[in-house]
TrEMBL record:
Pfam families: SAICAR_synt (PF01259)
InterPro entries: SAICAR_synt/ADE2_N (IPR028923), SAICAR_synt_PurC (IPR033934), SAICAR_synth (IPR001636), SAICAR_synthetase (IPR050089), SAICAR_synthetase_CS (IPR018236)
GO molecular function: phosphoribosylaminoimidazolesuccinocarboxamide synthase activity
Family: Belongs to the SAICAR synthetase family.
SUPFAM superfamilies (UniProt xref): SAICAR synthase-like
Recorded catalytic activity of this chain's protein: 5-amino-1-(5-phospho-D-ribosyl)imidazole-4-carboxylate + L-aspartate + ATP = (2S)-2-[5-amino-1-(5-phospho-beta-D-ribosyl)imidazole-4-carboxamido]succinate + ADP + phosphate + 2 H(+)
Protein name: Phosphoribosylaminoimidazole-succinocarboxamide synthase
Domain SAICAR synthetase/ADE2 N-terminal: 7-235
Top enzyme category: ligase
PROSITE patterns to which the protein is assigned, alphabetical: SAICAR_SYNTHETASE_1 (PS01057), SAICAR_SYNTHETASE_2 (PS01058)
Organism: Dongia sedimenti
């Protein structure tokens, strides 16, 4: 494994310098965290599965014209992505009442929302990712009104597509988180979908039983976390042959 410079390390992924200018290598870890890093653990094989699942979903979204930072998967735990300037927002799309929405409004989990709700949160672990309005976003210069319109339109389109895709394999897309970035090419800027889409940032429930098949199994100590991630990959038809074998991480140069 070639030695390469570490650019950034987050809770679930590491970004390394890419093989050519304007690219990065995104490495998926098995580390798991919840409640803004207050709870930590390891989900064996999670990185392998999330790499495959995110590759599959990003590719499918690219096929319907959604611009993403994804280029291609390199190996079991790594994918090549375009380097983007991340907008410091988490965009949460909610279709069903769950998690913090249930707590904030005292609504029972599982209640179908009359329409999809889009919420914005400022990306800051130190501040516990506070919810923000469009007024905050534009006043603090995180994005322009035009950026917000584009992000909202892309988010709803992604939601519409993923709702159908997951429903087709017996999964209910309850809610999920997206991140967007600015991609600069030939002196032009465009907004693209970044980060990942996986059971780490989606709530996925079995349509018949309501069984949770996502990171809530880790958050709530429900057990069988690895099996839940494997089940999502299996339903999507992308479980690695022989299961999610482990790989050592790449050597890094400080």
């Amino acid at each position: 494994m070639s030695r390469r410079r570490r650019i950034y390390e987050g809770k679930a992924k590491v970004l390394f310098e890419g093989p050519e200018p304007g690219t990065l290598v995104q490495y998926f870890k098995d580390d798991a965290s919840a409640f803004n890093n207050q709870k930590k653990g390891t989900i064996t094989g999670k990185g392998v599965l999330n790499n495959r699942i995110s590759e599959y979903l990003m590719t499918k979204l690219g096929e319907i014209g959604v611009p993403t930072h994804f280029v291609r998967r390199l190996n079991m735990r790594e994918q090549l992505v375009r380097e983007v300037e991340i907008i410091p927002l988490e965009v949460v799309i909610r279709n069903v009442v769950a998690g913090s929405l249930s707590k904030r409004f005292g609504m029972p989990e599982g209640t179908q929302l009359p329409r999809s709700i889009v919420e914005y949160y400022y990306k800051s672990d130190e501040l516990n990712d506070p919810m923000v309005s469009e007024e905050h976003i534009t006043a603090f210069g995180w994005a322009t009104p035009q950026d917000i319109d584009e992000i909202l339109a892309m988010s709803l389109r992604i939601n519409d597509f993923l709702l159908g895709l997951f429903l087709g394999v017996g999964l209910r897309l309850v809610d999920f988180k997206l991140e967007f970035g600015r991609l600069y090419e030939n002196e032009e800027m465009r907004l693209v979908l970044a980060d990942e889409i996986s059971p780490d940032n989606c709530r996925l429930w079995d349509t018949k039983t309501g069984e949770k098949l996502d990171k809530d199994r880790f958050r709530r100590d429900l057990g069988n976390v690895e099996e839940a991630y494997q089940e999502v990959a299996r339903r999507l038809g992308i479980l690695p042959e022989g299961g999610p074998r482990d790989m050592k991480g790449p050597a890094t140069m400080q």
